[in-house]
Amino acid sequence: MSVQTEKSLLIDLLQNINDASIIQKVKNFVLHEIEPAPLSDNQKKELDRRITEHRENPKSGVDAFEFLDSLKSKYEL
User: What is the pTM of this model?
Assistant: First the structure.
C-alpha cells in the first residue's frame, strides 16, 4: 500500500474519533517519532542566502496567498 493511501486511511480513522485525548495521544506519538532531517551544508547556505536577501530587500518577495491564487488560476484548480 502506498504512503499516500496509508495517510488517507489514517485521516479517515481520525475523522471518526470524537475523543480529543486519543487524537492528542496520536499527535504526541507522531511528533515524538518524527526526527527532523538534518540540513546539508548546501541547504544551510541557500537558507542563509535567502534570509540575507530578504533582510536587504524585504519588499522583493511575493505574497504567499497571491502566489497560491495565481497557481490556482493558472492550473484551474
Answer: 0.43
